[in-house]
Amino acid sequence: MFSVKNRLKGKLLFSLLALSSLLCATDLKMATTTSTGDTGLLDVLVPQYKADTGVDLKWVAVGTGNALKLGENCDVSVVFVHAPKSELEYVEKGFGVNRTPVMYNDFVIIGNPELKAKFAGKSISEVFKTIETEQIKFVSRGDKSGTHSKEKNVWNAAVGHVPEKQPWYLESGQGMIATINIADEQKGVTLTDRGTYIKYEANHKGKPPLVIVYEGDKNLKNLYSVMAVNPKRCANADYKGALKFIEWITTDKVQTEIANFKLMDKQLFTPDFKTRP
Q1: What start and end residues bound the annotated signal peptide (predicted)?
Q2: Alpha-carbon separation of residue 14 from 10, 27, 34, 101 (angstroms)
Q3: What is the pTM of this model?
Q4: In sequence order, what are the beta bridge partners of 103?
Q5: pLDDT one-digit tens code per residue, 83-129
Q6: Is 119 found in the same domain as 199?
Q7: Residue 113 lies in a domain
Q8: Half-sphere exposure of 88 (CA within 13 A, CB side)
Q9: Is 214:127 a contact under the CB 8 Å cutoff?
Q10: Per-residue pLDDT tens for 180-218?
């Protein structure tokens, strides 16, 4: 039989252990875009963050619109996304703070190889006009992601509207890899970030059904930024943890890790913390 004194000691020890667990919480919740997840970049960075800080980074990869919504709803403490206009609006509304550049790549159009000649020498606006005029099947993300936002911007700049009601314009409502697969099934084209395309290419051992049929326009740069959820709006946000992650991902060490992340010897992202205005 335990004495009352021993029982009290046991309860005190349990309470101290529980308090210690709460004070030393080691999880940081992050919402991010599908491209950081699909490419495998986070599979490299997350274990490194744990090793460097002792913190478990718990992340969910969704479209940028949904990632920002998770921050707005106080479900995460940090967001890592790629839709500058939406990000700036998010900050203006007071949902996000400490927006910081991390890296970039670019958007490309992929489709059947024979389309290369059709799009050669054109601007991105001229390419989208050609898609509309010739009613080439275009598969949109349709999910409020950063890529979907770019699609809409290009359509509006090219033809003054987004042709959502046209039979050749399809919306997947899914992530990038799934959208690429639908474009392949439909013998159409889609807009994707280069990093996810390289991952798709690697999945097909360098011989993918769809290839890059247009690239290089100055308007197709794809900028990624990270920001903390505003603790003034979300009392449960781990603001200190978010700042720690932002500081970590912009260190020279991690920026070099991002630059060195390659598939098939191709660089997926270029770090730009120090070079972006």
Answers
A1: 1-25
A2: 6, 21, 41, 44
A3: 0.88
A4: 224, 271
A5: 999 999 999 999 999 999 999 999 999 999 999 999 999 999 999 99
A6: yes
A7: yes
A8: 3
A9: yes
A10: 999 999 999 999 999 999 999 999 999 999 999 999 999
